Every structure is written in structure tokens, then in C-alpha cells.
Amino acid sequence: MASHNLAAVLALALLCLFAVPSLGALQVGFYRGKCNSTDVEATIKSIVAGRFARDRSIVPALLRLHFHDCFVRGCDASILLDGSGTEKTAPPNLSVRGYDLIDQAKAALEAKCPGVVSCSDIIAVATRDAVVLGGGSQYMYAVQTGRRDGNISVALDALRNLPADSLTATQAVAAFRAKGLSATDTVLLLGGHTVGITHCSVILNRLYNYNGSGKPDPTMDPNLVSVLKARCPQRSTVDNSVVLDQATPNNVDNSYYKQIMAKKGILRVDQNIALETVTNGTVKALATGALNFPTLFGNAMVKMGAIQVLTGTQGQIRKYCRVVKK
Ligand code: HEM
Ligand SMILES: *[C@@H]1O[C@H](CO)[C@@H](O)[C@H](O)[C@H]1NC(C)=O
Ligand SMILES: *[C@@H]1O[C@H](CO)[C@@H](O)[C@H](O)[C@H]1NC(C)=O
Ligand SMILES: *[C@@H]1O[C@H](CO)[C@@H](O)[C@H](O)[C@H]1NC(C)=O
Ligand SMILES: *[C@@H]1O[C@H](CO)[C@@H](O)[C@H](O)[C@H]1NC(C)=O
Ligand SMILES: *[C@@H]1O[C@H](CO)[C@@H](O)[C@H](O)[C@H]1NC(C)=O
After folding, report:
1. For residue 10, with 0-12 CB atoms within 10 Å meaning exposed, 13-18 middle and 19 or more buried, which class applies?
2. Among 110, 138, 158, 295, which is disulfide-ready with 87 (CB 3.0 to 4.6 Å)?
3. How far apart are CA 135 and CA 205, in angstroms?
4. Which pLDDT does position 22 carry in this prediction?
5. Whose CA is nearest to atom 5 of ligand 6?
6. Which phi and psi (to 5°) does residue 196 adopt?
7. pLDDT the model gives residue 157
8. Contact (CB, 8 A) for 317 and 116
9. List of domains in the chain
């Protein structure tokens, strides 16, 4: 490379360095040097790793927590707030988990540098770490930080903003578009269903009485229908769990896309994105590897993590993630 080219590249790089941390924008490594000698991201990572060693289901728990946080009032940790009538209490919350891990990380960081690290950033960083633990180093992505916490949480917002399991692909894409995400992002982010579970109550209609037909959903593989019927008896007092990725339920990988292409989607929305023209091309490319899921999933997570964030002097840094600071 000619030396003047190198100089130009260096100048551009410097420009970027100074341009990126502008007030009020998310950035990679926001907490570097802000917590005395404590490495904020390393602190969160070690807590996630400790939990993962005992309980791999922390991966789906955090993924879903982050998604729900970002889709309701933006990624502002409003989902963590306790109290009657908060997002936490709204029915689509069905079993959102991971709150205690966020509390643990927050306590560890408050002990090192009080009032510095937001709960919303802890969710974002912990989720990234969990994804890497569940999928391997190729799932590493440069998580952005610099979010601040909101002080409002309303159950009704959760009801209005969280997509229903029965959506068509077109409806799901519209719901994501309303948050500034593309059809491709919709497909990539639904790939979060590569881990974790749903409950029989959510899918009973697909198994026994699809759309009032008295029959199973014809878009589900009949063998899978039998397997799931055994796990989800029609009249049962217990609401069993069903894994969302029947092939590799504990690994973050692209098998979700292979499953839905084989008519083995668990939620109706999962199956629908493999069927409709708006999304089926992307599904196929991710299933075959023509599109690289590990890299693209990380990119989409960064986009999701930037939805309607509070930054700069907006919002607040809570002391306890479950309570607004007065
Ligand atoms: C149209 C969009 C979406 C719909 C309708 C949807 C719906 C659901 C439903 C109904 C469940 C099962 C809840 C239960 O029975 O307990 C679930 C679980 C889950 N969702 Fe989604 N979801 C969507 C998008 C996403 C996104 C974008 C992510 C993350 C990137 C995500 C991650 C998860 C995970 C990891 C679980 C398993 C949770 C666990 O095992 O604890 N979902 N989702
Ligand atoms: C989540 O919603 C259900 C209703 O579907 C409710 O019974 C439950 O208490 C809510 N969870 C929390 C943490 O409030
Ligand atoms: C650094 O540590 C001291 C002593 O623990 C603490 O008072 C101070 O708040 C910390 N600095 C920051 C930036 O948090
Ligand atoms: C569900 O049933 C209604 C009424 O029979 C019908 O109009 C509609 O197309 C069906 N929808 C699906 C997705 O099968
Ligand atoms: C997507 O679905 C449409 C309509 O069913 C079909 O014509 C097309 O071949 C599908 N594309 C892929 C890549 O499967
Ligand atoms: C809550 O947020 C609103 C709007 O951002 C702000 O005006 C208000 O002062 C905040 N209240 C607290 C207690 O932080």
C-alpha cells in the first residue's frame, strides 16, 4: 500500500475513533475505564459462565428476556421492574426468566462502581455471552453498550408490542418492521428459537384443533404431531414444556431453519416463515449455510439491542434493577 494511502486510512480510522463515541450513541466498550480497575464486561461474562455451567437454560432465558425488553419501550430494562401492572405481569411474559442473574451481575458491579452500569446493558452483554456459550466462538459479536434505564413499565405496552405465536410470516415481518427491523432480521432473530422451550398450552390448537378444523395443523409433519400429542395430552392438568428446536434443543446453531424446512416448526410463526414468500428464501439460505447464521445472527442482535434506547443523559442508572431510582 502506498504511504499516502496508509495515511488516508489512518486518518479515516482516527476520525472514526472520535466520531463513534459521540454523546448519546451506543458504542462497543462503553464501560472501558469507567469502573476503576474492574472490567465490566468480564465481570458479567464470568457470572453468566458460572450459571451456564450449572444450567444451560440460561441461554434461552436471557435471549427471550432481551427480546422482550427491546420490543416493549425499547431496550431500557423496563421488563425488570417489579410491581403490579408492570410488563413482567402481562400474559405474554409466559415464563420469562433470568431476572436473578441480572440482579447478581448488578450487585457485583454496584460493589465495584456504584451507579455506573445500566441494567439494560447488563441484559445485552449477558445475552451476548450466553449466545457464545451456547453456540461457540463463531457466535461472538461486538455487543454495544451505553444504554440507560427507563423508569416506566406498563403491562399494557407488553400486550401491545409482543408478537403472538400464531402470526403469519407477513404479520411477523410487519411487527419487526415497526421496530425498524427488516424481513431478513425477522428471520434471523426468530432463529433465537434454536434454544429453549414453549408450553403445551401454546401449541394445543396446532395439535388438535387447528383453526377450528378439529384436526392438526396440516403444515406440521404428522410424525411430529404424534410425538407432541404424547407430550401434550389434550386434557391435562400439567402444562408440559416442548423444545423449540427438536434436533439440537440446547445448542445455538442453524438447525432451527432445517427443522422448519422439514415441517418441524413448533410455533405457528416458526413454521410460517418457512412457507411464505416474504421469508422462505432467507430461511433456506440459513438452513443450507449459503447465509452464515453465526455472523448474521450477531448483527441482527446488535440491531435489536439498539431499538429505542435511552442514552447520554436520558433515563437513569438504577441501583437495583427491579426498582426505579427516585
Ligand atoms: C414473532 C416473534 C416471536 C414470537 C411470536 C415469539 C413467541 C414465543 C413463544 C410463544 C415462546 C414460548 C413461551 C412459553 O411457552 O413459555 C417463545 C420462547 C422463546 N423465544 Fe420467542 N418469539 C418471537 C421472537 C423471538 C426472538 C426475536 C427471540 C430472541 C432473539 C426469541 C427467543 C425466544 C427464546 C430463547 C424462547 C425460549 C425461552 C425459554 O426456554 O425460556 N423469540 N417465543
Ligand atoms: C405472567 O403472566 C401470567 C399470566 O399469563 C401471570 O400469571 C404471571 O404472574 C405473570 N408473571 C409475573 C412474573 O408476573
Ligand atoms: C472507584 O472506587 C471507589 C472506591 O471503591 C468508589 O468510591 C468510586 O465510586 C469508584 N469509581 C467509580 C468511577 O465508580
Ligand atoms: C381459518 O378458518 C377460516 C374460516 O374457516 C378461514 O377463512 C381461514 O382461511 C382459515 N385460516 C387458515 C390460516 O387456515
Ligand atoms: C417460497 O414459497 C413460494 C410460494 O409457496 C414458492 O413458490 C417458492 O419456491 C418458495 N421459495 C423457496 C426458496 O423455497
Ligand atoms: C422518568 O422519566 C421521565 C422521562 O424521561 C423523566 O421526566 C422523569 O424525571 C423520570 N423520573 C425518574 C424518577 O427518574
Report:
1. exposed
2. 158
3. 32
4. 44
5. 315
6. 90, -175
7. 84
8. yes
9. 3-192+293-304 (1.10.520.10)
Give the rounded percent of residues in the chain with a pLDDT score beyond 70: 91
**Which residues does a 6 A CB cutoff place in the pocket of ligand 3?**
35-36, 113-114, 116
Q: What is the mean pLDDT of residues 13-17?
A: 45
* Number of residues assigned to the chain: 326
* Chain segment 181-204, per-residue pLDDT in tens: 999 999 999 999 999 999 999 999
Proximal ligand: closest to the CA of 36: 3
Ligand 2: atom nearest CA of 90 is 2
Are 168 and 280 in contact, with CB atoms under 8 Å apart? Answer: no
Q: Which residues are annotated as a binding site for Ca(2+)?
A: 69, 72, 74, 76, 78, 87, 194, 245, 248, 253
pLDDT band with cut points at 50, 70 and 90 for residue 23: low
Query: Can you tell me the distance from the alpha carbon of 141 to that of 82, in angstroms, rounded to the nearest whole number?
Result: 30
- What's the mean pLDDT when you consider all of the chain? 92
CA distance 131 to 6: 37
Main-chain phi, psi angles of 242, to 5 degrees: -135, 130
Q: Closest Cα to atom 11, ligand 2: which residue?
A: 89
Hey, what's the cell of 230?
404424547
* 68 annotated active-site: yes
Which pLDDT tens digit goes with each residue over 202-246?
A: 999 999 999 999 999 999 999 999 999 999 999 999 999 999 999
3-state secondary structure (DSSP) of residue 290: coil
As a 3-state breakdown, the chain gives helix, strand, coil percent values, each rounded to 5, of 55, 5, 40
- Within 10 Å of residue 192's Cβ, how many Cβ atoms? 23
Longest dimension (CA), the chain: 75
